[in-house]
Amino acid sequence: MNMEAAIRLETSVERPFSTTKPLLMDTVDLTASGPGEVLIRGKAAGHCHSDLSLVNDARPKPVPIVVGQEVVGFVE
Q1: Tens-place pLDDT, residues 14-70
Q2: pTM of the predicted model, to two decimals?
Q3: Nearest CA among 11, 50, 6 for reference residue 25
Q4: Which residue of 35, 53, 56, 58 has the fewest CB atoms within a 10 Å radius of its CB?
Q5: Distance between start and end Cα atoms, the chain
C-alpha cells in the first residue's frame, strides 16, 4: 500500500523555508498492518508546532521522517 506524505529528507535546512522547501511531498510504501494494529486510511493531516520543531531542528530526529501526526481518516 502507498500513501502521499510530507517528508523531511535533510537536516539543518536554511530559512526562509518558502525558498529552501525542507519538506517534499512524495509517495511512501507502507507495510501491511500486523497483529494488534489497525490501518487508518487518512484523508487529511494537519501540521502543528511539534511538526515545525522537526523542520527547524528544535527537536532533531533522524531523517527521512514523515511529518503530520493529526490525521483524519477511516479505520479499515
Answers
A1: 888 888 899 999 999 888 888 999 888 888 888 888 888 888 888 889 999 998 888
A2: 0.72
A3: 6
A4: 35
A5: 13
31 is in which domain, residue-wise? 2-75
Calpha distance 63→35 (Å, rounded): 27
Cβ distance 13 to 67 under 8 Å?
no
Rounded-to-integer distance, Cα 58 and Cα 32, Å: 32
Tell me, what amino acid is at 8?
A: R
Helical segments of 1-76, H only? 17-20, 49-55
* Count of structural domains within the chain: 1
* Residue that is written with C-alpha cell 490525521 in the block: 71
Q: Which pLDDT score is estimated for 52?
A: 87
